[in-house]
Write a structure and sequence with these properties.
This protein has 188 residues and is mostly helical. The chain has one domain. Helix content is 60%, strand content 9%. It has nine helices and five strands. The strands form two sheets. It has a three-stranded antiparallel sheet with strand order 1-5-4. The termini are far apart.
Length: 188
């Protein structure tokens, strides 16, 4: 990521935080990333694809990777495909108006978290293209999975959903006394 400076990463973070300000329930990650692209515009490098992965742009993965520090700092929560700015994140946004200082503080807090958390000793300070891409792909896969599960459950017949919940409760060791039987149809 040598072509993307710490200042640029800080600009990405400030833009992500701006987008999330006033959104207490957060926004879908893909929406945040798209809005950040519209607000910032992309450099030629950010708009380019990974050399070994035609069709996989650097931008989305780079933004996701740049948000790791703020997540570990407690400034940003990534939950079920949504990004939520915490009160601490809002304070950091207001306190560190210079993008480089914001990124430096995120890095400092990340290093503090890393010191306190055992990690693989082979992790390097400068992430490779492969590491940035892998983080982005993992996040996107989680978001896609959550979206598909949510859509599947929303489309389920209510009685099938009830049966699924009862089966889950039983699997967790609970005793289910009764499940409502399906109705025969309208008027019955």
């Amino acid at each position: 990521m040598a072509e993307i400076t710490r200042k640029r990463q800080g600009e990405m973070l400030r833009t992500v935080f701006e987008i999330l300000l006033g959104q207490p329930d957060g926004l879908p990650a893909r929406e945040v990333i798209a809005k950040a692209e519209d607000r910032l515009g992309l450099t030629e490098f950010e708009a380019s694809d990974y050399p070994n992965r035609p069709g996989v742009r650097r931008w989305e993965k780079t933004v996701r990777f740049a948000t790791i520090g703020p997540v570990k700092a407690g400034w940003l929560v990534k939950e079920r495909g949504r990004w939520i700015l915490t009160p601490e994140g809002q304070t950091a946004y207001e306190r560190f108006t210079d993008p480089e200082r914001l990124m430096a503080e995120a890095d400092r807090l990340y290093r503090q978290w890393r010191r306190d958390t055992p990690l693989d000793a082979t992790t390097t300070a400068e992430p490779s293209d492969e590491a940035v891409e892998a983080v982005g792909l993992l996040e996107e896969a989680r978001e896609d999975a959550w979206g598909e599960i949510t859509a599947y459950l929303a489309a389920m017949n209510p009685y099938d959903l009830q049966h699924l919940v009862a089966a889950l409760l039983k699997a967790m060791g609970y005793y289910v006394i009764w499940e409502a039987p399906p109705r025969a149809g309208p008027g019955h």
